[in-house]
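job 3f2a | input accepted
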Amino acid sequence: MPCFNCGDTVGRALDSLLDQTVADFEVVAVDDGSTDDTAEVLRVYARKDDRIRPVFAEHGGVVAAANTAIEAANGEYVVRMDADDESLPGRLERQAALLDGDPALGLVGCRVRFGGCRENCAGYAHYVDWTNTLLDHEAISLNRFVEFPVPNPSIMFRRSTLEECGGYSDGDFPEDYELLLRWLEHGVRMAKADAELLVWNDPPTRLSRNHPKYDVDAFYRIKTKYLARWLEQNNPYHPVVHIFGAGRTTRKRADLLQKYGIEFAAYYDLDPRKVGHIVHGIPVKHREEAPEAGECFCLSYVASRGAREDIADFLHGLGYVLGRDFLPVA
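job 3f2a | predicted structure (330 res):
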């Protein structure tokens, strides 16, 4: 548990862990050079329960703090949690049971309960609802390029997986999403407990809301890097793809693929103002002109609410198979 200036929330986080239905665990909480009373809160809890192991470090950021905590931990299973979230009773027991029961699994998550205001944070709440539908490895794997399919504070993984695939990397990208993409690329199998086991809070100070390494452009840069490699291995028509969506935002994000040598055969859209145009030498066609299933590979780049599902339904109607003939990436 990385901790930075979280004196007002870390006590609730620790209480939620001490209320778990299993007792054999340790909490390695790294105080990342906090300037509030975080360190004192950790000391108080450590005096009350020796399973709480605080580590005090100079401020190095969340990646350094998370890796320091993981390195200091002794367990065969490693669990991530943020200091402003709460684990519900049974979280550790249910997730460990998944790993115990299936040696092929390297990482497990759970459904999460949105802890913010659904009215004020509708986009984040919609994301939580979406990620809660992705429970098995196939769903997680095939949706990895849409959004982060397994919320980082909810994960539990084997130490052997970490040793084989590496920990969090620091850079101009979201380190949690990069780790998940890298582990999936390595063949790590993932699943989720079909239960709400974590309250995922969304305070205004949350790092993912305020740091440029977690903004939309950063997500698209790192996902494009891994998507290009996925296409090289899985697109039978590589390097050619067909792009669903022809708006400016779609083209800006899809164009990132071109620096990896991916070529666009056509854009497809429904807007008559776009259909029939040529954009940088690439035709914009009506989606009814899409090739038959088995003749191309398509990427769905439209992110507006409901559009991803609409495009998937349309392609399924043509006989396209998710992962074989098309992939949602927005």
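job 3f2a | The longest strand covers residues 189-200.
job 3f2a | closed
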